[in-house]
Amino acid sequence: MEPTTCYRPVLERALAHAVTYLENLRHTSVSPTATLAELRSRLARPLAERGVRASQVIDDLVGDVAGGLVGSSGGRFFAWVIGGSTPAALAADWLTSAWDQNATLYASGPAEAVIEEICGDWLKDLLGLPPKASFALVTGCQMAHVTCLAAARNALLSRQGWDVERKGLAGAPSIRILSSDQRHGSFERAVRLLGLGIDNVVYLPVDDEGRLPVDVLASALQAQPERPTLVLLQAGDINIGSYDPFDQLIPLAHRQGAWVHVDGAFGLWAAASPTHRHFLRGCELADSWATDGHKWLNVPYDCGYAFVADPKAHHASMSHRASYLTHAADARDPMDWNPEWSRRGRGVATYAALRELGRQGIADLVERTCRHAHTLVMRLGALRGAELMWEPKINQGLVRFLDPGSDATGADHDRRTDAVIAGILKTGETFFGGTTWRGKRCMRVSVCNWQTNEADVDRAVEAVNRVLEETRA
Ligand SMILES: *Cc1c(COP(=O)(O)O)cnc(C)c1O
Known about the structure:
This protein is an alpha/beta fold. The protein folds into three domains: 1-30 and 32-66, no CATH class; 102-343, CATH 3.40.640.10; 367-471, CATH 3.90.1150.10. It has 14 helices and eleven strands. A seven-stranded mixed beta sheet has the order 1-7-6-5-4-2-3, with helices on both faces. Helix 10 (246-255) links the parallel strand 4 and strand 5. The longest helix is centred in the last third of the chain and has 35 residues, at 347-381. The radius of gyration is 24 Å and the shape is globular. It binds pyridoxal-5'-phosphate. Pyridoxal-5'-phosphate binds at residues 81, 140-142, 184, 186, 238, 263, 265-266, 292, 304.
């Protein structure tokens, strides 16, 4: 087929399959129904000598993955912290692939470089971050941590007279990292990737509300005042969505010359809501912030955002010049701020989602999902055989399930909780994940899909109640 006409049939097939998938989400199982063996046997076709027609590839693919997809793009999924995709974001993501720009330089993708500039400004505005902060659109919060911590490493060591970009870490003053014990594992991976060393992380205990107390950070800072220090604060921790008291902790850390990094993978989005933004008071004083687009903003994977208050440190840790690259004099080259070289134009989906929702739509999304989380958790916690563990303050809450035996121990309740979660997944009606929180197995409830509505909440509560009734000893 001619290159000019060969795309249409396959893209039209893909469109038909996609629309069917999305429209059926309300009726299909949220849990995968295919087994590992089934998926392997279907997908492990022989790598043929001769290729297959594009439409055939797509039809086969859709048939082969049937039952192997998790219904996380729909409204009945409440595990981990996973958003769906808004219509404009999804469509823009498709166009991003069709345009297939290399969004590394302005020269290799001018429109996408400009889109990212605009996304950066819009995001800083929505999230209440300093207008002068630099930013990078990365694959997710994991790489946002890496990007921000690379800037932190550069700045903290350069204040000690050490150019880490040239000299590396061998022989450098070691950086101490203070973090609450509620950090997400992606932070530790960033620490490892950057050679900062897990042994240099000091975990500090949180209070009953999951926040790092001021006196705890103060005494930790004073323990080794001479060491260059990075402080990790949490804007929405993974279990209960708690926020550290930024307005008190950040000035304290700064008095000791520390760099303060905020993990706000989903929680930073509370800033977009007038009723929730109080959780972030003082957060704008930090040195760097990491968040996601693919969680609460509901853009497709992969999409995270890194922001750095000191553009010089950020630029020094990422930028590169080579004779074969064409650098723009007045435009923004993404590669000066990003850890990747060749990269997809991932600003396009963000741009589309922000335009589609608008300020009001984003505030609504945050408030609506928080409201659904609250209803869902309170109703689940009130079921016979359930216990409320954390009433949501934002979009995260916890419940657990109790073994009805009169002499049931903590271990029995843990087992019961895991068994009920497994039972819920089997129904295909709704999907939750487990966690261990303060030594107890719990079921996590996270609402961040734009599609979740009252009917989804009702359906989830009914499904959980049925499992509890049917499995009561
Ligand atoms: C999801 C999450 C991360 C990791 O984000 P990715 O986008 O998956 O890389 C980091 N921190 C918190 C609090 C999270 O919820």
